[in-house]
Amino acid sequence: MSATSFIFFGLMLIPFIIFIVWLIKQDKKRNYLGLAVLLAAIIVAVIVAIYVDAKYMKM
Description:
Strand content: under 5%
Oligomer: single chain
Transmembrane segments: 6-24, 31-52
Order of helices and strands: HH
Number of strands: 0
Helix content: over 70%
Structural class: mainly alpha
Keywords: Membrane, Transmembrane, Transmembrane helix
């Protein structure tokens, strides 16, 4: 990944994590199943983004 990709991830990922932490604090029932699904979706999205970026960097 190039430096611009890391900057983009930083600009998008940090506010998203802050929003997710705030959202979890708002949940009074502490539904951890939704948190697990959300975490899995984030991991898959990051892996796909890295894979696609690496594919286009080789071109």
